[in-house]
Amino acid sequence: MLTRRTLLVASAAALAAPRIGHAADLTGVTADEIKIGNIMPYSGPASAYGVIGKLQQVFFKAINDAGGFQGRRLNFVTYDDGYSPPKTVEQTRRLVEQDKVSFLFNTLGTPTNSAIHRYVNQRKVPHLFLSTGADKWGDPQNFPWTIGWQPSYRTEAQIYTKYMLEQDRNAKLALLYQNDDFGKDYVAGVRDVLGSRFDAVVKTVSHEVTDATIDSQIVQLHGTGSTALLTATTPKFAAQTIRKVHDIGWRPAMHFLTNVSISVAAVMNPAGPEKGVGIITSAYLKDPTDPAWNDDAGMKEWRDWMKAHMPEADQSDGNYVFSYGVSKTMMRVLTQCNGDFSRENIMKQATSLSGLEVPSLINGIKVNTSSTNYHPIRQMQLAKWDGKTFDRFGGLIEGANV
Amino acid sequence: MATETTLPIAPPRPAFAVDPRIVWGVGLIILVAPLFLAESYQLFQLTLAAIYAIAILGLNLVTGYNGQISLGHGAFYAAGAYVAAIMMDKLNLPYWSTLPAAAVLCGLLGYGIGLPALRLGGLYLALTTFSLAVAVPQILKYKGIEAWTGGVQGVLVTKPDAPFGLPLNSDQYLYLFTILVALGIFLLARNLMASRIGRAIMAIRDHGLAAEAMGMDIASLKTSTFAVSAMITGVAGALSAIAVEFVSPDSFQVPLSITLFVGMVVGGVASIIGGVFGGLFVVFMPNVAEGISKAAPGVIYGCILIAFLFVLPGGVAGLLRRLAARLRR
Amino acid sequence: MNGFLHQVIAGIATGGIYASVALALVMIYQATHHVNFAQGEMATFSTYIALTLVQAGLPFWVAFFATVGISFCIGVVIERVLMRPMANAAVLTHVGLFIGLVLVVSNLTGWVFDYTVKPFPTPFHDGPLLGGLVTGHELGSTAVTLVVLGLVYLFFRHTRLGLAMRAAAFNPVSARLVGVRVGWMLALGWGLAAAIGAIAGIMVAPVVFLEPNMMLGILLYAFAGALLGGIDNPGGAVIGGFAVGVIENLGGTYIVGTELKLTLALVIIIGVLLVRPAGLFGRVVLSRV
Q: What is the pLDDT of residue A306?
């Protein structure tokens, strides 16, 4: 359907295609400062993710305290939106129009970023490395100024579904998902692979974040006689699921778990480590509570940094690992800018990363972007819970290529 | 349960020494000045403040004036916003036509909810409406209406440009439009509360039994007040969808209803003009709270609310009223 | 109909959670004629205190009773500092104070204790029973709820203090005339409610895992349960809590779908208030003028 809105978006996109070379937009950049804008849910229902912004405040401050970046201060301006889209719009306009930041970095949330998606593209403000795994951020055709960072949930679901079919062509899948944009991406991913067979193969049940327990849902899914289970829900409910599935004696041949909820400290141990044996996930980040990374160089770098700059912080919280990795990626972009901090060049460099290794990412996974590839991290690796740690198996899987 | 209230009752209009025409003139200048002085972003904030002011006014009618405590007005705000978004995006109707539509739909909705609600007193109503506020997002994303509401993804809309070749950008025009709508609604509400019906509404709050003994139809008055209140808040919701250009279930979580309630208490319970102060407070205060502490802005916000209840129970409007009274003496 | 039976049993297990929180709601209503919106948040905060004590090395039951004691004091202090000066204010002011408390306590909890999900220890045998539909903890915590219920009943029915508290809430003026110290009775009521809330939090946390928003949904289901059973009847509230758990599961599975479970609770609340405002087991009180 060609509505007025799609027309507007299309024309905005045509106008917004980065043109390098003339009339460089140096908003937010002075001889001694680069202004970076960020929005986080420091209050409200998603406050758990506020620590991502807290690390970034310290991260940029540490760089400034050590003399700045190429002689410039990195002025990191971060505001609270309480995970409420109207507030995100207000705070974004504050950053762009009043504070006049050079670019937006790692703004968090799917509904919140959806609310500002069109605005930042019309204004041609780089909107870099969003903290959300929705698939739609990688759309250089229509939204050339927005780029995500982490692998999309939808890709992840495709990987699980393909793996399931490889193991057992006649598998029946039970899908438990959180009824929001995050959970629904998994439904979409499974549907991508199965197509018209979806209804015959998959039984879905949703839950709300306000539910006390998901016992009822598990009992319901168990009754469908499915041979595989995909759990697409946040840590608290994932831990409940693992425990309940085990307790009622359900032993699905395959149990896939979203990589949002694979923290050893927050999910696997609370659920009971022996109860989750055999669970399969596909990871891209290193889990700080997984003993497998005790001697890893990248994690050592992260731990040393945490000890030096945020000694009070809870090192079992994987959000800090995520935040550190995405901040490192940002610094690489700024380095690559080679002194030209125009918005056009920042966007150009953000989309010309090649083979970047980040300490937070599982060894071997590299960050790659180009003018047509706006999915910086496309690789993941399957891993199986053995009762103590997630044991990685198989090679790196690049996208799902359905 | 005896609900005895000691709410500040709006005093009869004081005999201001100042010519009302001067008050009106100054007021209009204050309202129009930002059009020429403020930047786009500030205009946007003021537009939001005006929208919240309307919503808080709606809440104040039912809670402040009529004594029926609602903690779920975010539901009507959400309904109004979705009406506007769906009409503009799916039906390609003009933005201005969404306001009367939102008013009618939310009025009906308010009537439907007000009907059982009028049988609940005080805390029960507060808790029931609070439950409504918690349930709103999951009703909005219900799959049966997903084709219209866009489910969890929400709906994008586009701000109108200034009509008739007015030399205003879309932020300026929207500010002007919102201010005009707000002005109209505030005048209507003021006249309503100053009328016989308004006095009856307050009488029900202050002494329901006596009001009934005097022959007032309490049930129908309470329900109608709820409907009018929902109508006004719904119009505010529709305006918010146009200004923010986006609606989604996450836009209307519990904190929205709480925000409206806080705005009402801070602006002034049972005060028409209180809505304006409330609107300004809920837009600008969170930014101040965040400036004080990034660690937990919510704690500061809550403390401010409690402080207001203790120190300024009449809200900002009550404070101004007292100051004015002192000046006149 | 194996699935049906399983849903009922799972519903009873979840209903135990609602029952324990409903009991705390009834407690504060009995003692103050208020329904405290911040009850859930306060209980969560208490649970974090318990976790801190357990992690500091105290045995579970020592930490349990210490937390109950601390929570009692917090409740008393809140009544003395916040509610007391506003004793004669309008209901609206009280609701405002409760909302303020919700904001402060919930954000404070996240600030002090972090938002990450934390496991909470259980003192009971934590293995699955009845084919995994019920855990040892769920049985144990239901027993605790029933014990608390029994104590509450004995306290209100058979002690002078309990009688004085009920009198203070029911008719403050007359109570004062016969020598009841009404102010302190209210403070005591808040303390007891906070203490029972803490017990509920500690019993709930091992099942749902501890995080700052643990109680948001639970509180509404508990409120529905309390209303269903009768807000002035502790026993009724407990039965109501179990009933809501079962209704929620059956309704979610067979009627409205899992997306609208919370809406179902809302419907129960409105339905009860309209059809039988005193609840199934509550006394119908006629108010005179």
A: 94
Q: Is B152 within 8 Å of A180 when comparing Cβ atoms?
A: yes
Domain boundaries, chain B: 20-252
Contact A212 C208 (CB under 8 A): yes
Could you tell me if A137 and A169 lie in one domain? no
Q: Is A123 helix (H, G, I), strand (E, B) or coil?
A: helix
CB atoms < 10 A from the CB of B291, how many? 11
Measured CA to CA, the distance from residue B52 to residue B60 in angstroms comes to: 12
A12 lies in the same domain as A102: yes
Q: Would you say residue B133 has pLDDT above 50?
A: yes
Q: What is the mean pLDDT of each run of 10 residues along chain C (289 residues)?
A: 79 88 84 82 94 93 95 92 82 86 89 85 76 77 88 87 85 85 86 91 89 87 87 86 90 81 82 76 58
CA distance A304 to chain C (A): 21
pLDDT confidence band for A19 (50 / 70 / 90): very low
Do A391 and A251 reside in the same domain of the chain? Answer: yes
Residue A17 has pLDDT above 70, yes or no: no
Q: Please tell me which chains touch C, using 3 or more CB pairs under 8 Å as the contact test.
A: A, B
Residue A400: its pLDDT value, please? Answer: 56
What is the structure's pLDDT at B191? 87
Q: Which residue's entry shows tokens 């904190």?
A: B255
Q: Does C256 touch chain B (CB under 8 A)?
A: no
Cβ atoms of A305 and A324 within 8 Å: the answer is yes
Asked if the Cβ–Cβ distance from C133 to A209 is below 8 Å, we say no
Instruction: Say how many CA atoms lie within 13 Å of A248 toward its Cβ.
Output: 24
Q: Give the tokens for residue C201.
A: 């939090």
Check if A316 contacts C (Cβ < 8 Å).
Answer: yes
Q: What is the CATH number of the domain that holds A62?
A: 3.40.50.2300
A206–C258 CB contact, under 8 Å: yes
Q: B57 pLDDT exceeds 50? A: yes
Q: Do A109 and A211 fall into the same domain?
A: no
What pTM did the predictor assign? 0.87
Does residue A241 surpass a pLDDT of 90? yes
Whether residue A206 lies within 8 A of chain C, CB to CB, comes out as: yes
Say whether pLDDT at A2 is over 60: no
Number of domains in chain A: 2
- Which residues of chain B neighbour C99 with C-beta distances below 8 Å? 71, 258, 261-262, 302, 305
> Which chain B residue shows the shortest CA-CA distance from A95?
B41
Asked if B148 and C244 count as a contact pair (C-beta separation under 8 A), the reply is no
Residues of chain A with C-beta less than 8 angstroms from the C-beta of C3: 219-220, 223
For residues A6-23, average pLDDT: 47
Burial profile C53-71: b = 16 or more Cβ within 10 angstroms, e = fewer: bbeeebeeeebbeebbebb
Chain A interface test: which of C134, C258, C259, C263 (most A C-beta within 10 Å): C258
Does some domain include residue A291?
no
CB contact under 8 A, C131 and A249: yes
| Same structural domain, A223 and A171 | yes
Distance from CA of B311 to the nearest CA of C (A): 11
Is the ipTM beyond the 0.95 threshold? no
User: Could you tell me if A27 and A175 lie in one domain?
Assistant: no
Residues A262 and A388 in one domain: yes
Q: Which domain holds residue A221?
A: 153-283+381-398
Choose among A213, A209, A204, A287: nearest CA to A243: A213
Name the closest residue on chain B to residue C274, using Cα atoms.
B116
